[in-house]
């Protein structure tokens, strides 16, 4: 029964981390370049509209995933291979680095963007746009590598 619970926990961790990593991969594949090419006012309007809908669901993942992963590492002692445990630990560390970037860069930019009202005439909007895209690309590296680490742990662990 314990092995089944641990397998379910690993499934939840992989699934939840996938949701987080998918946004970063999507920015690297296309959306980062798209966001750098569109006019600043359009970018700001899109960010405001998107933020209203994505903020709450992503907060659930970003709060629950470190807790699930820490639980998986602790419960997995003696049950998971060293490779699987190390890979989950690496993924957790990369997720925590992503959360640090959220708190230090993404959230302050999002707050500024969400307070703007005269989008076509925003002074410094291009700087916000560039900083936000660069932050998302950096975050994408962290959570993409974290997800790959989890996959390696599952396949080789």
Automatic annotation (TrEMBL):
Q: What keywords were assigned to this record?
A: Membrane, Transmembrane, Transmembrane helix
Can the keyword Transmembrane helix be found in this entry's annotation?
yes
Q: What is the lineage of its organism?
A: Bacteria, Pseudomonadati, Bacteroidota, Sphingobacteriia, Sphingobacteriales
Species of provenance? Parapedobacter defluvii
Q: Show the stretches that span the lipid bilayer.
A: 12-36, 83-103
For this entry, the protein name equals DUF1772 domain-containing protein
Please indicate which superkingdom the organism of origin belongs to: Bacteria
